[in-house]
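Give me structure tokens for this 83-residue protein.
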Amino acid sequence: DFMLLRCDAGEASAELGTWWTRFIDADGPTRQQLIAQAPAGGGAARRRRRRPTGRSADGAAAGARPPGAPAPVPTPRPHDGGG
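Here you go.
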């Protein structure tokens, strides 16, 4: 059960794990009572997953152009005076 695994990993409280176990074993009316008594918060705050760098969501390399897109125009650089 993923909820109990989260509790074991410290991502959710032990109180929530106990409530969850009672909830999944309960009948319909008892579940309604348990929902009214559900622990607030449920445990640790959710962490956002970061997208790996170097690739976009569709798997293309960072900075890659979609097919048919025009090439970027190079930015002119000032001349450094060297020769």
